Amino acid sequence: MARSWFIPASLAVFAFVLWLTTFIYQSSYINRTIITIIAILMIYIVFRVLLEDRIIKNFTSTDKRYYFSKMLYSIYLLINFIIIWIIWVEDIRTLLLGFGLVAAAFTISIQDVAKNLVGGLVIMFNSIYKVGDRIEVAGKKGDVIDINLLHTTIMEMSEWVSSDQHTGRLSSLPNFLVLSNAVNNYTKDFSFVWDEITLPISYDSDWRAAESLIMDIVIQETHMMKEYAEEEISHMQRKYYILKSSTDPGIFFKLTDNWIELTARYVAPARQRRILRTKISRRILEEIQRSEGIRIASESIEIARFPDTGLQRSSIDHSSLDNSSFDHSPFEHK
Fold this sequence. Notes:
Radius of gyration: 38 Å
Protein name: Mechanosensitive ion channel MscS domain-containing protein
Helix content: 40-55%
Keywords: Membrane, Transmembrane, Transmembrane helix
Subcellular location: Membrane
GO molecular function: mechanosensitive monoatomic ion channel activity
Distance between the termini: 111 Å
Pfam families: MS_channel_2nd (PF00924)
């Protein structure tokens, strides 16, 4: 509180001293200075004392308190700049021209900063993503751990690490990327994704038994997740135009030249997709090993006969070659 009132008290004293000097020396510059100090003093009290110290401290969320403080400070500086310009520039045409030149110079000099600032405002006000969301922007994927007015920091995923695992690197993404790139959010409003496991079995296998085996395992591992996913979809239908779709797991078939391809489709938590896939895959392998009628296929090539290349035996009689024809070889030692 002492810090909050020290600056306005100092400005008030300075303005009072200048006011006393007007009894000795009259000048329009002194009057403008006094008006400027009073204006800055009022703006400071409103923004830095009343709004920041009285309102921001009521925010329980650290990130909201941070964003509101930064936004308030930016508005505070902008209003100060405008008020000072209006007080010291008399001609309205000069004022407008000056604003135009300053705006143009500002836009050119900090173009990237301005775009990042706009992107940051879009992220915050449109709720494109928030801290804790798993996103993918411009080919970069990760969990959001910090958002400020200019950059978004994510815990990077994928790259050289397979599937949905962190690399350990922190990536800083400029906020303007959301203005010109698609943003994939894996956890906003719906924290599940559809995943698939593909299993090739040989044509001599019992495909009906394989289908039943895989389906039973998938149902057992995902039945609770299916209920949560349906509940989240119901909430999404109140916000988006989403047709009712089933979250039941399914088995799909595809016939290839070498095997029957069975694909299991199911819902999985976005943050546990790889863990769930591993768990289901292990159980499928264990059950197939115990089964006698199911065999996992591998690609093979059956050769019925060697193809006729059309090459004929040479008609040259090698025994008729005259060895004397090599007597004059340039490599002969003399």
